[in-house]
Amino acid sequence: MAEMDAAARSLNCPAELQGLRDGVLHVLRHVLRDKTMADDLCNETFRVVLERLRQQPLEEPEKLAPFLAQTARLLARNAQRAEVRRRTFTGQQQAIDEFGDPEADPSAVSQAQARTDAVQKILAELPTVRDREILVRVYLRDEDKDQVCRDLGIDDAHFRRVVFRARERFKALLDKRYRAADLYCFAVSL
Fold it and tell me: What is the CATH number of domain 101-189?
């Protein structure tokens, strides 16, 4: 405030204007209990009052101080209401917090990429093309079972056996490539 007072005096502000400014600051600090916000709203108060006075002068100029004080109080109340609205609890905040962006956590992104790389390597090692194709289409692309059956030329009962065998071959390669502890961590992280 001392800096602002010095700045006001250096601009040759009349003592009356400085007194009005001090009064507005006193009102705002009393209402807001926040020095920084009070300083900001003090400037805003003078801006609002000057715009109003340019459009319509006061009928009684001696009531300028009460007019400034009332304008400051109104601006302070509006600022407090806006702050309360910003902090309003909707009851959904916990759900919003739990639905965080998975890409916000670099370690989660790194783990997901490692799992993807591991699955791709194991799929590439599968000995038959049909095993790779059926696992990719059913589990990764989530394609319609009937369409996969038509494309591969197999019926529903045979489809289940083919998928089961492909999963077993995939699991065997997974067991061979990773230790049991790694498999547990891999399965839990999926």
Answer: 1.10.10.10
Q: What is the pTM of this model?
A: 0.41
Count of C-beta atoms within a 10 Å radius of residue 93: 10
Q: Which two tokens stand for residue 48?
A: 């609002």
Q: Quick one: pLDDT at residue 131?
A: 84
Cα distance between residue 33 and residue 22, in whole Å: 15
Query: Rounded to an integer, what is the distance from CA 67 to the centroid of its chain?
Result: 41
H-helix segments, the chain: 2-10, 15-32, 35-55, 64-86, 93-98, 106-125, 129-135, 145-152, 156-177, 180-189
Q: What confidence category does residue 105 fall into, taking pLDDT thresholds of 50, 70 and 90?
A: low
CB-based contacts of 17, cutoff 8 Å, min separation 6: 8
Q: In percent, how much of the chain has pLDDT > 70?
A: 77
Q: Are 168 and 134 in contact (CB under 8 A)?
A: no
58-87 as b/e, with b when 16 or more CB fall inside 10 Å? eeeeeeeeeebbebbbebbeebeeeeeeee
